[in-house]
Write a structure and sequence with these properties.
about 120 residues, mainly alpha, Multidrug-efflux Transporter Regulator, Chain: A, Domain 2, globular
Length: about 120
């Protein structure tokens, strides 16, 4: 769910790239745009969506609430409206913990290979 290092420096992401980042469909992203006004990609020529890093961060919050925590869309809207900063901090913390867990699993595997 994090941006890969080659794409970190891009100004805009296509809907396909964003969908791949989160493992969701283009259709779901378009639906979330309608439901969450804070996700508002620019539309270029031929109405092609151009997602900024900020748009991706907003999608990350919605993804966390809906897909990872299992909230309804209404529940996610209320959570973002009432405590957007708290949700963002929790999402960031969860990502850090997942990263630490992955590192610990690598270390465990390496230690297991020593015996």
């Amino acid at each position: 769910m994090s941006l890969n290092s080659n794409k970190d420096h891009k100004l805009f992401y296509s809907i396909k790239e964003v969908a791949e980042m989160f493992g969701v469909t283009d259709t779901l992203l378009r639906y979330w745009e309608k439901e969450f006004p804070n996700i508002a990609p620019k539309k270029g020529s031929r109405n092609v969506r151009q997602y900024t890093r900020e748009n991706v961060e907003q999608i990350k919050l919605v993804y966390h609430l809906v897909k990872e925590k299992g909230m309804t869309l209404e529940g996610a809207k209320k959570a973002l409206k009432g405590n957007k900063e708290g949700v963002a901090k929790n999402t960031e913390l969860l990502e850090r913990l997942k990263s630490i867990k992955a590192e610990l699993l690598v270390i465990k595997k390496q230690l297991g290979n020593l015996t």
